[in-house]
Amino acid sequence: MELSMQLEGVLFYKATPLQKRTLCALLKVKEPELEEAVTALQNRLSGSGTRVVVTDTEVELVTAPELDELIESVRKDELKRDIGKAGAETLAIILYRGPLSRAEIDRIRGVNSSYILRNLMTRGLIERTESTKQSNQYAVTTTLLRHMGVTSRTELSGYTDTMNALDAYERARNEETART
Fold this sequence. Notes:
180 residues, alpha+beta, three-stranded antiparallel β-sheet, 6 strands, 59% helix
């Protein structure tokens, strides 16, 4: 498969800016090859609804600037809607277990959470935080805590009991996995 297609797939899946060195490692190429793939992808996407933004250190797949008005109207429409069951579930996971990477959230939920995470970030309920790992972490915002009437997540009703139950579940699951 063509390297520019692999690059596009990774950027689409990650839905976040990626370090060039991370992309080189993922795609098993050197930086000059990556640069060629980025240029090929930029050329292929020119005139389409997505573009590739490149800085000295990062690469990201974004919507085309010509779509700003449309994207803004879609964003506003999303904000009018309830966050739904999937949003509440994801928010609870981050609230009790965060900060977590998207991969960890996906593992817990069993489905891809990109759309939900973007929706929660747009609403100001969660934020991306810097991480020493290769991926971003997601954490709740002070706005959410303030809205919930607490200054720390440890003040949430039943926090200790919930965390103890989650820890017990994780231990049991890990023991079961180790046996199989």
